[in-house]
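Hi! If you just cloned this repository, the fastest way to understand the data is to look at a raw example. We've pasted two of them here, unedited. The first protein comes first, obviously.
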Amino acid sequence: MQLQDFDYELPAEAIAQVPVEPRDASRLLVAGETLVDTTFDRLVDFLQPGDLLVRNATRVRAARLKGTRPTGGAVELLLLSGAGPEWDALARPARKLRPGMRLDFESLTGEVVDVEGEGRVRVRLATADDIPIEDLIAAVGTVPFPPYITTGPSDPDRYQTVYASRVGSAAAPTAGLHFTEDLLAALAGRGVGFADVLLDIGLDTFRPITVSAVEEHRMHEERYETPAETVSAIEEAKHGGGRVIAVGTTVVRALESAASGGSLAVGAGSTDLFIRPGYRVRMVDALLTNFHMPRSSLIVMLAALLPDWRRVYAHALAGGYRFLSFGDAMFVPSIPAGEGEV
């Protein structure tokens, strides 16, 4: 498979810079045999009692730190993942950082442990007080918007889902941004169930595919967790004939990774799963997602789940749908069973 097979022309004016208000006023394209144009607040019309919406309950960390180097020059870090004091991050300007260099971020300090290339560094964060480092990151940092967002909303909570629970991601699971509390209540009233997983979204959200042969692209690992109650809810939904509907591509990756042994497993792990055409889906029956960047791992995944994605995207572009993180949504009501497995 060649990267050009997953390319399309995305006009700059189609990239949504701010979300619509209210959240569920965004448009929704139902990508069945017949394409249906509607709005997200009508999602309840396309779900059935017994369907299960599986959500990524991760919360975006205030992961963008702006500070100074010893020379007084500016430095910016985008924290990707970490445990305790040591963190992997994207740095700017990475070329001016050296191991052992001290970085100052107001009440938080950092020491460069390693410079790993491609803008990545490893830093050790510290504070003079006993305040937990995660709390200081929340106080000093800002929520990072994707690099293609040049304005963004004034309220950073618009880049969080209403059901976000645990801080851990460098980017939002954007398919979930369309839900409101009222819509969730209406779906529950319809007999639709909910279950949550966690997948901490990291570097690959910001990293394009750069190789011409798609199979050669390597995903960075992301941490995921599938709770016991979620596994039970999925088993119950499937037994009752309901659909397991992934709210976003991160849920697909989490569930398919947790089922890599043949059945869905309870627990936590790390995944570098790269879903591409030919992959046999195990757990997910339907998908809610936004419209994705060309030549990205997300559009490659979509091609695996929706083989006629070009027809859908052409319709969306012609119809003025808004693309990417703050854009509109699409619903794939049925994912065809694949014949192969990557």
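Ok, and the second one:
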Amino acid sequence: METAHSSDRRGLERARRTARLLADHGHDVTYLCSQWWGGDAVPTFDHEGVEYRRVTHEPATGAFTAKLPAALWRTGADVVHAVHGPPRHVAVAEKVGTLLRTPVLVDWFGDGAAEPGSQERAANGGDLVATPSELVRTRVREHGANDGSVRVVPESIDLEPVREAPVDDRFDVVYARRLDEHANVGTLLLALAERRRRDWSAAIVGDGPEREAVETAARDLRIDDRITFTGSLPERERVSIYKGAHVFAQTASAEPFATELLRALACGCLGVVEYQAGSSAHELVEGVDRGRRVTSPEELADVITEAGNVPRREYNESFERFDHDAVLDTYVDCYEGIRGSGLL
């Protein structure tokens, strides 16, 4: 129903990126949604090689649900890629897919709206559920999905700026994320305060409703003169900072997939993750030589200190499997698997 053009959800941005990459590689992509472009008399809109097709004028759940079956029938698709949330729409897409004998992949990022009773139907009705991490995969299985019908398809990043962007070496430690109720920057601030007698500088990249509270906490700890709050930055500027930094700290309490941590690891940062039950970030540093897991501010402070003995790097080729094209190949493999013909 909604798209990344009308709603700020990471799961929708994942769908937009996947659709664009598929189109870039020669696939025909039709995106069924409520209208987000101008012109009431214009039922379709071509953007980034993708045909966006209007199902409803406004994002009304009931009306979209009623009109979705006919819209799916008219597309004549080889595969239906259903974005999780609202689950009711996913359940309808799954039923229509069964009637049309069209396989359905459910892309379950983990930030979609929940509806009583519909999560189980959404998790069980498709041919395959794709999740960004093992954390979300486990949650989908808890809704009743069979283990073999859920596959991890991670988030992807563009490695071109990682290779080409200049180095900004102003900061030793970096934190980057939307500053909301799950940001949990306090752990990092306490760790930095533990090291106030040492020489360091830090950047907190991002904006959000908790920024003022985080800045106040830094002042209360008397370390605000060594922390730069950059606000939101374009991707290329973030990459430059990551390439120049030594440590990237990941402390958020909720994260279906830690994309900025991934980007920083690809830039050669030492990734330090505070384990959180609601975050998948630890999955990215398991078995990684430039990754560390901690459980307290004290442990985080120790790792930041020890990082001084770890050589700096500006690129880590072991994360090339997360490049856009590599992850797109995984999606195509999923489509081919549920079609059973390998003709995509």
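That's it. A detail worth noticing about the second one: The longest helix spans residues 324-339.
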